[in-house]
Design goal:
This protein is α+β, with helices and mostly antiparallel strands. It has helices at about 15-30, 35-45, 60-70, 90-100, 110-115, 120-125, 175-190, 240-245, 245-250, 265-280, 315-320, 325-340; strands at about 1-10, 50-55, 75-80, 135-140, 155-160, 170-175, 195-200, 205-210, 215-220, 220-225, 255-260, 285-295, 300-305. It has three domains: about 1-105, Rossmann fold, CATH 3.40.50; about 130-200, Dna Ligase, domain 1 (2-Layer Sandwich); about 200-220 and about 260-340, D-amino Acid Aminotransferase, Chain A, domain 1 (2-Layer Sandwich), CATH 3.30.470. The longest helix is centred in the last third of the chain and has 17 residues, at about 265-280.
Length: about 350
């Protein structure tokens, strides 16, 4: 089968052949530097017997359209994370693929738009009866004039970032002054609205989901644990450093492991919320749902990741491996789900 892998790239004007050369170099050097996700996906597709074309998108979608029209793929594997170096524009790629009639993997434009806006996703899920923390968004230049009904501590985030960008220990605020200060920081640093929500004390759980319709599967749950961190809320959040800074993680005993014991009641609630979120947010093929498990066994939706990170050794791929899918099989499963959906 002919599968085109489309992805955002900093390399302007690069041809598929140039990306193939770079892919070979990066894969050969894997022990020193992790290859880009799109190259790992492409290699898995090749090992699964597919013909693969690498199409990097820099600043012009017309080049992608022309290459797809010329090559006529059976499926497009959408590995884009941004367009014009802006993650808020990632929905444009699947929108164009739909307009031009291509089958592709992953979330449709609507799902990307809604899940990118953390407040909108929570509004949709609250309507469907899913537990979400009390929250409020603040447009650029807007700050609260007085304390409202929300309880401190709160966590303040940029409305539309991913990978915990903009989340740090300073994101936890304990009073009105701290809330105003952090909201202003988000506005000035990221140029976008800020989301303030009540902090949920509890365990950080991640569910990678795969499938469509009535056949959606939750892969083994991953938990971020904070074994050497303090007991303050600031010490027990999935900040950018907690996710990506290896020295910080080691120093604070932060690890991503398969979830420790979860009660039967909490597990039932976990599954209910994950399935409801997947359906209500128009997710498909694969996605990741982030939740908090509180001490009273209540489950709280935190965030949905449409088209989550797929690199080998990271959470979603590790969950698939735990389920019996090696990396190549995991990527093939995503392909199969997309093909069945559009059959």
């Amino acid at each position: 089968m002919r599968v085109a892998v489309v992805f955002d790239t900093p390399y302007e004007g690069w041809t598929p052949d140039q990306h193939a050369v770079q892919m070979a170099k990066d894969l050969a050097n894997w022990k020193k530097v992790e290859p880009d996700m799109e190259y790992q996906v492409a290699q898995a597709l090749q090992k699964n017997g597919h013909d693969v074309l690498l199409i990097g998108i820099h600043d012009d979608l017309r080049d992608m359209s022309a290459r797809l029209a010329d090559w006529k793929p059976d499926l497009v594997f959408n590995a884009t994370e941004a367009f014009l170096d802006n993650i808020a524009l990632d929905y444009l790629v699947p929108a164009l693929l739909e307009a031009e009639g291509y089958r592709y993997t992953g979330a449709p434009p609507l799902a990307l738009l809604v899940t990118r806006n953390k407040a909108m996703a929570k509004k949709v899920l609250a309507y469907h009866g899913v537990n979400v923390p009390a929250f409020k968004s603040y447009r650029v230049g807007e700050t609260p004039s007085e304390e409202g009904e929300m309880r401190f501590p709160m966590i303040v985030k940029p409305l539309g970032t991913d990978a915990s960008e903009g989340i740090a220990q300073a994101s936890i605020v304990h009073d009105l002054g701290g809330l105003r200060e952090r909201i202003t920081f988000v506005h000035e640093r990221f140029g976008q609205p800020a989301l303030a929500e009540e902090y949920i004390e509890g365990r950080e759980l991640y569910a990678t989901m795969i499938g469509n319709g009535d056949k959606v599967e939750i892969l083994p749950i991953v938990e971020m644990v904070f074994d050497a961190a303090g007991d303050r809320p600031e010490d027990r959040i999935a900040s950018k450093s907690a996710k990506w800074d290896m020295a910080y993680r080691k120093r604070r005993g932060i690890r991503n492991v398969f979830a420790r014991r979860i009660s039967k009641v909490a597990m039932e609630r976990f599954h209910t919320i994950c399935y409801a979120s997947y359906r209500a947010l128009w997710l498909r093929d694969y996605a990741r749902i982030d939740v908090r498990l509180a001490a009273d066994d209540s489950i709280w939706f935190i965030e949905a990741n449409a088209n989550p990170f797929l690199s080998y050794g990271h959470d979603s791929a590790e969950a698939a491996h735990k389920q019996g899918l090696n990396y190549n099989a995991f990527i093939q499963r995503i392909v199969d789900e997309a093909l069945k959906r559009d059959a």
